[in-house]
Automatic annotation (TrEMBL):
It comes from Parasphingopyxis marina. Keywords: Metal-binding, Oxidoreductase, Zinc. PROSITE patterns: ADH_ZINC. This is NAD(P)-dependent alcohol dehydrogenase. It holds the Pfam family ADH_N.
């Protein structure tokens, strides 16, 4: 029979999203239907729209969904109809990394998040009789309803009962990635210096988390002064415009080097310069998306001799069941103040919302679905 919904359909890089009526499958075992209240927009949505991440089209994007559970499939026990939930990335739950609480590195990440299909190859959504790619990050939340999975849905704790879902939705990707990189992947220590390169949602998430961890100094680098101001308001102790030789300024401020350098830009020259600033035993964490052909040039003696680590980071090593609750607790207590980074757009202004995110006018556009 199926479940009807309205979804934003992406047909090509240069056609606007159009909101169309679709039919979702009834939930299978381990799946559930969420009435979507809001969904954040992330650069990965843009990367798929622009074919930088190739998934066939038409496709329903959206991977920072939040809403209310409507219906659960067989075996789903940790949430029930009526529960408020945040939806994040999906994982298989049955590989060496899922088994050791590292689901962002799931061996089956692609089929569960980036195939546009269920991991078994079946479609989850149709327009009339025609299948459409969906199940993006196990959700496809640019829609009024989404078919999600037991593993990628987190129940909103009662401490956040008063927080509207449009404010909780964006926790499931960029903010979590930045915060997780600091609190999990690099496990930043109190009193140690960190520099964050790039102050979008991921970089600002990292800065707020660095303040929670007690890092000192907390240095933010970006090309936009307005972003640096946001960074300062959220915990950066020093801000340097990238156009004004930030590397020399950081070297002067931290003559012993940085315990942590965190790159969200994906720019080869920024990463190589940041490596030169890392102190003995320091960590350079990489989260920015780089052109696929880029190769880093790092001095091997400096890497080995200093016991330095260069680590790739996905999703901030977040085990979402647990970590998202932790972030919500920080938010409720005022320690993770991301609310000012959000601008809410009505669902039917999705194209305007994308534009506001791409132009840099808004750090985190969030779509609000009609009630
Ligand atoms: C992802 C990458 C894999 C883990 C969760 C977040 N990034 C999305 O934009
Ligand atoms: Zn994302």
């Amino acid at each position: 029979m199926g479940i009807s919904a309205n979804a934003a359909i992406c047909r090509s890089p240069d056609t606007p999203f159009t909101i169309e009526e679709v039919t979702l499958d009834e939930p299978r075992a381990g799946e559930l239907v969420v009435r979507i209240a809001a969904c954040g927009i992330c650069h990965t949505d843009m990367a798929v729209r622009d074919d930088h991440i190739p998934i066939p089209k038409p496709i329903i994007l959206g991977h920072e969904g939040a809403g209310t559970v409507e219906q659960v499939g067989e075996g789903v026990t940790h949430v029930k109809p009526g529960d408020r939930v945040i939806i994040s990335f999906n994982s298989c739950g049955d590989c060496p990394n899922c088994d050791t609480d590292a689901p962002t590195y799931c061996y089956n990440f692609g089929p569960n998040n980036f195939s546009g299909l269920r991991a078994d190859g079946s479609h989850t959504v149709h327009i009339g009789e025609a299948p459409v790619q969906a199940n993006f990050f196990g959700q496809s939340s640019f829609a009024t309803r989404a078919l999600a999975h037991e593993r990628n849905v987190v129940k909103v704790p009662t401490s956040a009962a008063d927080i509207p879902l449009e404010q909780l939705a964006p926790l499931g990707c960029g903010l979590m990635t930045g915060a997780g990189a600091v609190l999990r992947s690099m496990a930043v220590r109190k009193g140690m210096p960190i520099a964050v390169f790039g102050t979008g949602a991921v970089g600002l998430g990292a800065i707020m988390a660095a303040k929670i961890a007690g890092a000192d100094p907390i240095i933010a680098v970006d090309v936009h002064d307005a972003r640096l101001e946001l960074a300062r308001e959220r915990g950066a102790t020093h801000v340097f415009n990238a156009k004004g030789d930030p590397i020399a300024k950081i070297a002067e401020l931290c003559p012993q080097g940085l315990a942590y350098a965190f790159d969200t830009t994906g720019l080869k020259s920024v990463i190589e310069d940041a490596f030169g600033l890392v102190a003995p035993k320091g960590i350079l964490g990489l989260v920015g998306a780089s052109p696929p052909t880029d190769m880093l040039a790092l001095n091997e003696s400096a890497l080995m001799g200093g016991g330095k680590r260069v680590i790739g980071i996905l999703g901030g090593d977040s085990n979402i069941q647990g970590f998202l609750e932790e972030l919500i607790e920080h938010h409720v207590a005022g320690r993770f103040p991301y609310e000012g980074l959000i601008r809410v757009f009505p669902f039917d202004e999705i194209n305007e919302a994308f534009h506001a995110g791409e132009s840099g006018e808004v750090v985190k556009p969030v779509l609000k679905m009609p009630e």
